[in-house]
Specification:
alpha/beta, Rossmann fold, 4-stranded parallel β-sheet, 4 strands, EC 3.1.3.48, hydrolase
């Protein structure tokens, strides 16, 4: 299974989600290829934001990817595409050509533990904010990552995609 996490610049939320998912899938013994991309070209070739790395490293995550911009090839190759917020979702959808591509796009918050009570939460962009915004970002991402792993384990991933996906 190939999972793509997507935010705006690919230096804060999506590399954090990539790192968290890699660790969570590994812990669960699930073979998943997790990568990330951004909808903009602002930071192509850059490593994750210093606070993304600092807070993530303190939580036991590693970072090896560099920022890249989302392309139609990403949409074809991924099995699941996780948008961090409504704006990212709209930007991803603008690149789609087929219903098959749209059927695998969902906001990451669809896997969070509070999705039924509160709707689907966006993962706010912490860029330009202090460290506590990055801590909150990781709290949200870790919760959604655990939910995604559960959805794969209990075979409800397709149900979540159909219920909350972008089609």
């Amino acid at each position: 299974m190939k999972i793509l996490t997507v935010c705006l610049g690919n230096i804060c939320r999506s590399p954090a989600a990539e790192s968290v998912l890699i660790k969570e899938f590994s812990k669960a013994g699930i073979n998943a290829d997790v990568t990330s991309a951004g909808t903009s070209d602002y930071h192509i070739g850059s490593q994750a934001h210093k606070l993304t790395r600092k807070v993530g490293t303190e939580r036991g995550y590693g970072f090896s990817s560099v920022a890249e911009q989302l392309t139609p090839t990403h949409l074809d190759e991924a099995d699941v595409i996780l948008a961090m917020d409504d704006s990212n979702l709209a930007n991803i959808l603008a690149l789609t050509d087929t219903d098959e591509q749209r059927a695998k796009i969902v906001r990451f918050g669809a896997f969070a533990s509070a999705v039924d009570q509160d709707g689907i939460a966006n993962v706010p962009d912490p860029y330009g904010h202090p460290e506590d915004a990055f801590v909150s970002m990781y709290d949200q991402i870790e919760d959604a990552a655990r939910g995604l792993v559960r959805a794969v384990e209990d075979q409800s991933l397709e149900t979540v995609l159909q219920r909350y996906g972008a089609q």
